[in-house]
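Please describe what follows:
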Amino acid sequence: MDSLDLDPAFALHRGGKLEVRSTVPVRDADDLSLAYTPGVARVCTAIADNRDLVNDYTWVSNVVAVVSDGTAVLGLGDIGPAAAMPVMEGKALLFKQFANVDAVPICLDCTDVDAIVETVVRLAPSFGGINLEDISAPRCFEVEERLRALLDIPVFHDDQHGTAIVVLAALRNAARLTGRSLGELRAVVAGAGASGVAVSRILLNAGIGDIAVSDSKGIIHAGRDDLNPVKRALARDTNKLGLSGSTEQALAGADVFVGLSGSTISEQAIAAMAPDSIVFALSNPTPEVDPSVAGRYARVVATGRSDYPNQINNVLAFPGVFRGALDVRATTITENMKVAAADALAAVVGDDVSENYVIPSPFDERVAPAVIAAVARQAREDGVARK
C-alpha cells in the first residue's frame, strides 16, 4: 500500500472517482452491428439531416461539461488544471448522485479568456450544458457572459450562481423566521469576487431592501476610482445609503451579513448589527466570525461547513438546476430560473423553519425534485424551453 493511502481521502480517490458504463448490451454480432457499424451509420445520417435528433439518439441531452482552468480551486487558489481534477471529478460525481446528470470533468491548460471561450465553444456540440467551475474573478464573469452569448445550451458558473441560489433560499427562510420580508432587510456582503457579485445580484433581483458590498479596500460606492467594470456596475445598483469605509462600519445597524471574502469580522461588529440579525459567515474552512460567537447576537447563523447547522452548500442547487434545464432542453438559465430554484429550496423547509433549520440538508430527498420541477416550469414560462 502506498503511504498516502493511509489517509482515507487518498484511499477513496485512488484510480479516480468516475468511470464510463454502457447503457446497451453488446452480447453478440447482432448487438455489435446495431451499436456500431453498420447500424450506427443510419443514426449518424439522420442526425446530419436533422441536428436536433442528437438529443434523442445520443447522450448529449443528459451530459454536462464541468470546465475549469484551475485558477480558483476551493480555498486553494491557483493550483493549475492537474491539481483541479479531483474537484472536477467530485463535481461530476455529485451531478450523478443527486440528479442523475452525467458530467465530464475537463481541466483546461490555459487561462486566457479568449482561449477558454474558444475551447469550450469547440467542445460544446458534445454536451447539453456547461458548468464552469473554479475560474478566478474577474475573468470568470467575461468567460460566462461570452459563452452564454455564443451557445444555445445552459452555461452556469456554479461558484457564482449555485452559491447565490442557496443563500437566497436560506435568507428567505431566515427573514420569515424573524417576521420580515426581504424588502425590509439591509444587507452587507463582504467579498466582490465571483460568489459575492452573484449573491448581490440575486438578492437585488429578489427585492432586498438595500445591500452594500465590500472588497479588500472597503465598501464599494460610486465615488471610488479604483473599480473594475463589474464593481462599477455594483456601485451603480447597490448602496442606497451611500456608505463608505470598512465592512465593519457598514454592519452597524445592518440586518444581514453575508461573508464570502475570507476576511475576519470582529465580535463587536456583529454585536452592533440590528436586533434579530442574520449572519451567513460562509468562508471555508474558517468562517469570518466564529459561529458560536455570532450566535450570541444573531438570530440565525449559517456557514459553509457541514459541522454547524444551516450549511450553505452548492450541491443543494446545481444538480437540480441542470436537471431541470436539461429536461426541457433549455437554451439558457435565466435569472428567473435561479430565483425559482431558490424559492423551491426555501419551500422544502416549510413550517419546520427554525434558527437551526433555514435550509434543508443535501440528503433531503425532496430537494432535487423540488428544484428540478421549479426550474423546468420557469424555463417554459420564460420561453427558453425547447421541449
The chain has two domains: 3-158, 159-387. The beta strands are 63-68, 102-107, 129-132, 155-157, 186-190, 210-215, 218-219, 256-259, 278-281, 300-303.
